[in-house]
Design a protein that fits this description.
GO terms for molecular function: transferase activity. There is one protein chain. This protein has 126 residues and is of the alpha+beta class. The chain has helices at 28-35, 65-83, 96-104, and strands spanning 10-20, 43-54, 87-93, 108-111, 118-124. It has a 5-stranded mixed beta sheet with strand order 1-2-3-5-4, covered by helices on one side. Strand 2, helix 2 and strand 3 form a beta-alpha-beta unit.
């Protein structure tokens, strides 16, 4: 995402990933919604936001997480029309403020185990 001067205001990367649900705490109904068919699915395929960030060295930079996610979802919707998909995931540090920020933007925790250094969060795509 660029401003009028060509400065990078924010960035993100996307890929498609298979995710194990073995350690998730979501209900069978949520599993079925993510999978599309099977409430007992142990793995799903999802769009993974691999990186997401804001360039704080550009001032003023009024880009918000909501605006970045709007761009992410626009690209995912194009891909979804070609290859399908039902879910978006991301992995973030176990920082309560960061987790809350993603929750405020429509994500829920999928995998949050003591043995993992990251929290996996998810949201559905329409």
């Amino acid at each position: 995402m660029l401003n009028d001067n060509g400065d990078i205001l924010a960035y993100f990367s996307l890929t498609f990933k298979e995710v194990s649900l073995v350690h998730s705490d979501i209900s069978k109904g949520q599993v079925k919604h993510l999978d599309g068919i099977n409430k007992n699915a142990e793995k799903i395929k999802a769009y993974l936001i691999g990186q997401i960030g804001k360039n704080f060295s550009v001032e003023p930079n009024k880009i918000t997480l909501e605006l970045i996610l709007d761009e992410v979802y626009a690209i995912i919707n194009e891909a979804k029309a070609l290859i399908g998909g039902r879910a978006v995931i991301l992995e973030c540090d176990k920082n309560p403020k960061l987790i809350e920020l993603y929750k405020e933007n429509g994500f829920d925790e999928l995998i949050h185990t003591p043995s993992e250094s990251l929290v996996t969060m998810y949201t559905y795509i329409a």
